[in-house]
Here is the input.
Amino acid sequence: MMESTKLDAIARELFAREGCPSISGAHHRDGLMVAGQRAVIAVLEDLISVLFPGCYLTHEVGGADLAACARAVLGKAANSLQEQVRMAFEFACAVENCTPQCQTCQERATAVVEGMLGALPEILCVLQEDVEAAYEGDPAAKSTMEVVMSYPGVYAVIVHRIAHELYRAEVPLIPRMMSEHAHSRTGIDIHPGAQIGPGFFIDHGTGVVIGETCVIGKRVKLYQGVTLGALSFEKDAQGRLVKGVKRHPDVEDHVVVYAGATILGGRTRIGTGAVIGGNVWLTHSVPPGAKVYNQQPSPLIREVDGSWKTSQGPWQSAGDGI
Amino acid sequence: MMESTKLDAIARELFAREGCPSISGAHHRDGLMVAGQRAVIAVLEDLISVLFPGCYLTHEVGGADLAACARAVLGKAANSLQEQVRMAFEFACAVENCTPQCQTCQERATAVVEGMLGALPEILCVLQEDVEAAYEGDPAAKSTMEVVMSYPGVYAVIVHRIAHELYRAEVPLIPRMMSEHAHSRTGIDIHPGAQIGPGFFIDHGTGVVIGETCVIGKRVKLYQGVTLGALSFEKDAQGRLVKGVKRHPDVEDHVVVYAGATILGGRTRIGTGAVIGGNVWLTHSVPPGAKVYNQQPSPLIREVDGSWKTSQGPWQSAGDGI
Amino acid sequence: MMESTKLDAIARELFAREGCPSISGAHHRDGLMVAGQRAVIAVLEDLISVLFPGCYLTHEVGGADLAACARAVLGKAANSLQEQVRMAFEFACAVENCTPQCQTCQERATAVVEGMLGALPEILCVLQEDVEAAYEGDPAAKSTMEVVMSYPGVYAVIVHRIAHELYRAEVPLIPRMMSEHAHSRTGIDIHPGAQIGPGFFIDHGTGVVIGETCVIGKRVKLYQGVTLGALSFEKDAQGRLVKGVKRHPDVEDHVVVYAGATILGGRTRIGTGAVIGGNVWLTHSVPPGAKVYNQQPSPLIREVDGSWKTSQGPWQSAGDGI
Here is the structure.
């Protein structure tokens, strides 16, 4: 057992440290209440279970009982979310030295939660298009039920559509906590600010990054390891990064982007129906209907007898069978 | 607090929505019982703890007590798995409009679980070869115990060998739920249909994708970011994807595939003992014993004085020291 | 229900199997007590909550109560960690056929835990530099609070700094269990042996691999998919891998490495202030201040009218706006 006086000394040093600046609210709390991560994740899971009770509800109920059960879960989630949103607004007010809105955190939280819950029926409708797109787009999918229960790309999109609603309502902290929960679970990193049309499908998904200012159209399909990112960051006169500018690409309807492709820049636009091949590195716009391939480096093969050859011509399929 | 009447209205809209089609069993349950994700994961964890009690058993017991404890965990897992498998068969019957097999879901579940548990001793034996391969293949590995407790590649293979047994028994939903649980935890996406020989090791692992119809031999080693995927998808006369055809490569014994390599296509075969270098993109077969390298693009270096040079010759090591 | 006699037979076969060798301590326990994964993760979470109570403490307390609460959590963590460390030392002694140190496992555990907890104030100070670096380095970051609560790169570094302290104290098993917990949660694989200076930031992070013998300077920034890895493994006269040699690169202060770059080899050194572009494959040292770009393959574009063109010149930006 460690001596009590040593523990006391360490605790004192941790909470009265000089010489290294404390991070607002993260190290010391100073009475500030912050949105608890577990509470936020619990709300998220409750909302998902109401959208897809057949997959995510923890109680087994059916028929009329299902509606009653979903109603109860919805009420619980609403109360908890309102509490978390209020604390998040209060945190932001405290950090930003209290604007006039500070008195209205409670009212703002109420309005946000009503908006969030009111949007659920529409979100469900869009998600059903996403699920159909996943089922149709993957030969390995056995049923839409399997897709909803198991596909990480579908889970990430469910979470994104909820988090994006809260992002649009300018709630601090909570949208990103939700999207990073999905990132942790799926390896898919969608910033809650990204705007994504219906029928969106990400296959496999690990390593996908979608930036804050992306705008993605309808029926777009991405594979694992795709980045829709920033080309460079603007800096202000003090050399600090400028926040809030358009930094990420636009992707129009019916575009397919194969595994490992990187598309960068706020002025880059991928036209309707374009196909971007595996590992392509793209920093320019491409027109509608274009097919973009890598001139893949031809691998060199050394055979057992010591002879060398190249295995294939200079162009290779982009993984899309064309 | 949100008004009760508003919550009622949202719940009503969610469960009686017209204009956007519901997804069978996922949104509405309609009395259909589906396999619960938590129950399936709990079974999986119980089976793993019986295979590796020294690492995964939650109770600390030893000697003769260990066998008794493992026996108890096995019995619990068998009962729960049987329940889940029965529900999964019933779900499939209901979706597929009830075949004659529908009356026999219970009997089929019993047979599947007996087969699954009966296969465990053989699975354990194969897993011990996997663990040895991991320990021998990684200079950072300090002990086989560390390998079993901590290596994501080992965890993913443990789960795969269990899920594959259920896949072979044609159980719906559950094998993929297990493999996606491992994917979530490890970033390694192995479809439960893939056939993988003993002594298989994936180092680091994040971003690895192994497709449904892959066939992998003995003592194969993969690094992070390797894809064994499909080159293109066949479509039927209606333009829908054809499901069930061979789409993914064969990898023979003693092959090593370095980080980020992509190997695509159902007719692509990597011969015994071949070495595939980092980031190689391969859509053709290679013969036994071949070494396949990228002609890596030579990076350009701009030094501080403004001069340019290339840092290295046109060929680079594949990361395998040759 | 499965027959009891069948379960008995399977359990017997699992624990008295001949013909396939058992893995020391992993399959059979033989009375050996091993560090429980859940206990180790619980200690890790307690230590993190003491470092950042505003984000990770589970109880809501403020002011003077906060210090008392943190003190209590610290004491609980110290006791549990000491127990786990002792078991890990005992495991190593048993595997290595009991050195003279075997009698001193308890004493060694006490010393390790005192060292670990005594290092927390200094670790906190370094972490605050990491958090500042993350906030300043990402235009999407809204507050340092958001960074601590949500950024996977920050979480991975918090865990690494704790695990590295235990690695330096030569504790078996536990450091790697902690780092693989972070890997599972974030997709960022930092070996606990890596030496990393203050102000370290990994953006997005999925797929990052940092090897055991890396040495990283101050204010270094990495993006998703970066590998700092080994070029090849030395083998001894018996053909077995040599463990413990310097295999991974050195990265000096103020270096930036963009997404997907691969830097390999124990003699590879990236000089101060160098910038390594996206997808660069580097196995040689580069001097301070150098900018390293890929000659990206120019993607080929086939437009709808069937004509071909290349979308851009042979050189492309490395994603750093230069």
